[in-house]
Amino acid sequence: MTTDWAQERILVFAPHPDDETLGCGGLLSKAKRAGAEVLVQFITVGDTADESAKGYSTAEERYAEIKKVSDHFRWDDWNMALPGDHFHLRLDTVAQVDLTQIIERESPISIARAQPTVVLAPHGSSYNQDHRAVARAVHTALRPSNTAVRHHPRLVLSYEEAADQWRTDPVASPSLIVELEEDDLDAKVEGMGLYGSQAHEHPHTRSEPTLRSLAVLRGMQAGVALGEGFHVARCLA
């Protein structure tokens, strides 16, 4: 499968700021460098416990990080759907129909409004309740239908994060590997570094060695030097 990323409009659903970089930062770098349009829909953010000197980061600090990362990757637009502590790390308490409506048509960069050709979303096997809630809602929003009635992106992928390997149910290896250049991996690592409140030293699932090691592993599985792995939900050739 060969994709001309220059022709694509990519919409990424990230439960929290940094998930898009951890899961598909290399692909976003590669696609944007080729000329793709990239939109990122964050779902929620709030005050977050971290390992900084004060022990937490505020939502305002997280917004500042998003702006730095957006400039770094040159995203065309981004949006935050449900800001605040009422939703952050509590998306499993939001009715799935409400979350699906935001993703499908209510957000300024919803599927119906943005009409992406490619959608990227978290994998439903994550231990994180917010990730699972977003994965289910995106899956529902992209349910099969008449294309004259509902927009159908040509390519729908679930991205992986190293932390997702912590699970009890077996999950197949990624079914699609996107080859990365060294510059794409460097852009991913640098982007994660701009999320200063969320980056960690090794050994940690969000450390630089972890990101580089996973890229080497996925690349090796496809016979190339570096790659990012994805699970295919839809691919219209």
From TrEMBL:
**GO BP annotation list:** glycoside metabolic process
What molecular function does GO assign, one term? Answer: hydrolase activity, acting on carbon-nitrogen (but not peptide) bonds, in linear amides
Q: Which residues form a coiled coil?
A: none
Q: Which UniProt keywords apply?
A: Zinc
Q: Does the keyword Zinc apply?
A: yes
Q: Which PANTHER family match?
A: N-ACETYLGLUCOSAMINYL-PHOSPHATIDYLINOSITOL DE-N-ACETYLASE, N-ACETYLGLUCOSAMINYL-PHOSPHATIDYLINOSITOL DE-N-ACETYLASE-RELATED
The protein's name: LmbE family N-acetylglucosaminyl deacetylase
Which species?
Answer: Nocardiopsis aegyptia
The taxonomy runs: Bacteria, Bacillati, Actinomycetota, Actinomycetes, Streptosporangiales
